[in-house]
Amino acid sequence: MTGTPAPHWTHSYAPGVPAEVEVPPDAVPDLLAAAVARFPDRPALDFLGASTSYAELGSAVARAAGLLRDLGVRPGDRVALVLPNCPQHVVAFHAALRLGAVVVEHNPLYTADELGAQFRDHGATVAVVWDVVAPVVQGLDAPALRTVLAVDLSRALPLAKRLALRLPLARARATRAAMTAPAPGATPWEAAVAGATPLPAAHPGPVHTDVALLQYTGGTTGSPKAAVLTHRNLVANVTQSLAWVPGLRPGTEVFYGVLPFFHAYGLMLCLVTALRIGAALVLFPRFDVDQVLAAARRRPPTFLPGVPPVYERLATAAAERSVDLSTVRFAISGAMPLPVATAARWEELTGGLVVEGYGMTEASPIALGNPMGPTRRPGTVGLPYPSTQMRVVDPEDPAVDRAPGERGELLVRGPQVFSGYWNRPEETAAVLLADGWLRTGDIVVADVDGFVTVVDRIKELVITGGFNVHPSEVEDALKAVDGVTDAAVVGLPGASGSEEVVAAVVLSRPLDLDAVREATRASLAAYKVPRRLVVVEDLPRSQIGKVLRRQVRAQLLAGSAQPGTPEP
Question: Where is each AMP-dependent synthetase/ligase domain found (predicted)?
């Protein structure tokens, strides 16, 4: 876009936000190294009260990189992370990138079936995993996997809290069991890193065109696959995000990591953006209102990436307990629609701003955002980021543009857009057009000022609690139950702007629907298990026999079927 007139929507940007950004030719390790050099004594991480300085983080990353090198990890090799948010996650992520390896993030709540399919796809040789799930990873049918490094979360706690876990009390035992478990046969991460020789500073690192990350997503088809993101993609999205919030002050901000790092949204804003500007990153292994409010008293937040339920629950609890959240100057909401009432309540409570953004894993992930200022428009997902182009097109023919106010499929193009799916050339070609435009699969309306409102989805992912559920996975689990002959999974409106996973099922004989739901838990993470089952005589299909999920969804919304018992 250099040398061309700025798009008309840039006139609505917040003051100080440029129409374009210059993406530096850096790799992600260069960003961390710069922060370590500039802010060595500044707190980099805070985990339930245990603080790690930038100098200490840099040393830990060097030791961990040395360990991975000694384990045979080479540039381009995949290193799998199966971890909740914790200091070890941050260290392992940056250590793998420092070597030029490719990080693959995984949800530690996934079942063996879900993890096994992904491990066989990406072929990681080393996995750094939470010791609680280490036996699951060790039991996977993953021929390439050589080494499993087990992380004990309790080792990252402050000393007093670690000692308290050893007390012969029921509460202490329960807390310890929730954080750590024996992992026989796995290599203890903490001891291995402590004994490793640091990787020399002169050791070659990756260049900006190298692949940095494989991030699994359903894309626009709902079939899980890994988006290939380069260092340039990530550095570009960091650069764009920092330009979008010009009020951020290097070396003074406090980011709260309540979003999981195995999700592209939490990864970008916390694992990369926060550390790029020398922010203190406060880590939470899971979103817990009590832990967040306790941290707010200890280390008040200034920047909070989240999802609408986070803002709702924190606002309610903070008001009830008289906890001051007025230090939160900026908040970005994503993954699901942000209710206007929620945004208004949050801004009244904090005096800061909360704006909704739009992204997808294939865009590293952020492509659009509401301005951080008076021109923001609650209820929309905002405007294209700097150096990001947008088109709204006919979904049947992306060469045909829609006029402002008309519905169409959103296309985006920019330096943050991915290079394709891992080993999926046909699916890449379906969403990444020859001239660099990414088909998002979302139906939107853009007004004359460029503000975008999402009105529908072509893609059939269900988004529940900020997590993606791929209908085909749930349908396969349901059809594996004896007596279920067919199934179609859709998302129906739920609380707080999220969706509920609901399945229409065809039965060959009467079944206990609660038992059917329970049977799927063996192969599905808890949030993927259908909230409701609805018995139907048949499923609507296209002429070629494909189940028409959009028609199923419409029928369920109309109540034209017999519902099963909802989950309590």
Answer: 33-422
Per-residue model confidence as pLDDT tens digits over 324-333: 999 999 999 9
What CATH fold (topology level) applies to the domain 28-206? Rossmann fold (3.40.50)
| pLDDT tens digits, one per residue of 258-277 | 999 999 999 999 999 999 99
Q: Please give the Cα distance from 257 to 547 (Å, whole number).
A: 39
Nearest to 121 by CA among 215, 252, 12: 215
Instruction: With a cut of 90, say whether residue 562 has pLDDT above it.
Output: no
Does the pLDDT value for residue 542 go beyond 70? no
Q: How far apart are CA 354 and CA 362, in angstroms?
A: 24
Rounded Cα–Cα distance for residues 529 and 536 (Å): 19
Residue-level pLDDT at 40: 98
Residue 188's pLDDT band, with cuts at 50, 70 and 90, is: very high
Q: What is the full DSSP assignment across 165-205? A: TTSSSHHHHHHHHHH----TTSEEHHHHHHTSPPPPTTS--
Residue pair 206/75 in contact by the 8 Å Cβ criterion = yes
Tokens of 200: 């020399």
- What is the identity of the amino acid at 412? V
> How far apart are the two ends of the chain, measured CA to CA in Å?
53
Query: What does DSSP assign to residue 31?
Result: H
Identical fold for domains 28-206 and 462-563, yes or no, is no
The class (CATH top level) of 462-563 is: alpha beta
> What pLDDT band is residue 565 in, cutting at 50, 70 and 90?
very low
Amino acid at 40: P
**Distances from the Cα of 302 to the Cα of 44, 48, 274, angstroms:** 14, 17, 11
| Cβ atoms within 10 Å, residue 119 | 24
- Longest alpha-carbon distance in the chain: 69
Contact between 408 and 393 under an 8 Å Cβ cutoff? The reply is: yes
Query: What does the domain layout of the chain look like in residue ranges?
Result: 28-206, 462-563
